[in-house]
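Q: Could you fold this chain for me?
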Amino acid sequence: MESIIAWILVTVFLVLTFLPLVRSDFWTFRILEYPRLQKLVIGILLLGCVLVFEKGLGASFWWLAAILVLCCIYQVVKIFPYTIMARKEMKLLKAGVRSQEVVIFTANVLQDN
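A: Sure. Below is the predicted structure, expressed as structure tokens.
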């Protein structure tokens, strides 16, 4: 019984992790791009549950653990650029000449509205 529940949860997690890779602008695919940190925490919790119930899972333990580890690695790779540990893309300017500054104003607006 634990094996069936574990497979269902891991399969749902796998789908939720990789569904945003579908090249579609439909909201059901795009909405799953944003809760990456939450999905990482869920993946770690699922991996912990799989480790706790290792004996009841039998041979499928290694498959479940491998799938969860790969999903968590994917989430970490996607999250890392937004952490303070990632390399800065822009350098800060300490002081500059006000007359030589360029001001840029942008807006991200969906054109179909």
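A (continued): The radius of gyration is 21 Å.
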